[in-house]
Amino acid sequence: MSLYSEKSESAVPAPKGSLNPINRSLSLQVATNLFTSFQYAWQGVAYAFRTQRNFRIHVVVGSFAVSLAIALGLAPVELAVIILTCGIVLTLELINTALESVVDLTVEQTYHELAKIAKDCAAAAVLISALIALLVAACLLLPPLWQLLQPQLF
Question: Do 58 and 88 form a contact (C-beta atoms < 8 A)?
Fold first, then answer.
């Protein structure tokens, strides 16, 4: 399947009061089924992993945190919290990548102060989520690590 769909749906006006307009003439691709939707989503993850250094860093650090939590035998709820916070960081990194791409598409090679603000705020959202994830991991991982590293007095 090519990147651009060769079939475009006709520009049929949506019935009055319809929540799903049929006009998708400007869409490049339309997912025809659930499997195709998942393929497009994984293409986005693969793109981010290939092109975004910070996404790869977050994947490695998150994988390490989850592996350490498993190795330390954290409670299932604590493990779930670590997985959830890592997932939030990765999700925000993907949103940041998408927003940066749309802004770059819009302003092209020109500088615009609002474009800078949008990109900086999206990056800040990733930064804040990563710092919070680090704090959560520290709260959950440091106590059992400390116990493990304490010399036995007996």
Answer: no
**How many other C-beta atoms are found inside a 10 Å radius of the C-beta of residue 139?**
12
- Give me 99's structure tokens: 């927003």
How far is Cα 94 from Cα 55, in angstroms, rounded to an integer?
A: 8
CB proximity list for 108: less than 8 A, separation 6 or greater: none
Look at the pTM and tell me if it is higher than 0.90: no
The answer to whether the CB of 14 falls within 8 A of the CB of 20 is: yes
- Successive 10-residue mean pLDDT values, the chain, 154 residues: 41 51 60 86 95 97 97 97 98 97 91 94 98 97 92 62
Catalytic residues: 93
